[in-house]
UniProtKB/TrEMBL annotation:
Organism: Thalassovita gelatinovora (Thalassobius gelatinovorus)
KW Hydrolase (keyword) present: no
Matching CDD domains: RHOD
Superkingdom classification of source: Bacteria
EC number: 2.8.1.1
Residues annotated as domain Rhodanese: 22-118
Broad EC category: transferase
Molecular function via GO: thiosulfate-cyanide sulfurtransferase activity
Protein name: Thiosulfate sulfurtransferase PspE
Length: 119
């Protein structure tokens, strides 16, 4: 006999992230590569930390630590489609960041009414 795990709702929607970013209660991280940002911009106010650098830049002991993460509470991560941001969410949780959410891709942010800034 196979048992199905009950699906529990997890995470936050892009709409919720946009609303929380507007009132300053969330830290948004873009984990895409530099070239992707150059082509499409990033979510307004987001911190850019490429996925390949996340382990270092989110570690308070590392010289490249992003000081904005020192006192952050809720974190929303996104990429182009949601796959890399899923990996980023898992990595940040392993590093001890508790309130981390994958909100998908930049298009989800835009569809939810989030502004984009060019870099």
């Amino acid at each position: 006999m196979f048992f199905q795990r009950k699906q529990t709702p997890r995470g936050m929607s892009a709409s919720e992230a946009v609303a929380q970013a507007a009132n300053g209660s969330i830290t948004v991280i873009d984990v895409r590569e530099h070239g992707e940002l150059a082509g499409s911009g990033k979510a307004q106010g987001a911190i850019h930390i490429p996925l390949m650098r996340l382990r270092d830049m989110a570690d308070p002991r590392h010289p490249d630590f992003v000081i904005d993460l020192k006192e952050c509470g809720t974190i929303a991560v996104y990429c182009a489609s949601g796959a890399r941001s899923h990996n980023a969410e898992m990595l940040l949780r392993q590093m001890g960041y508790d309130d981390v959410h994958n909100i998908g891709g930049l298009a989800h942010w835009v569809q939810a009414g989030g502004a984009v800034e060019r870099v």
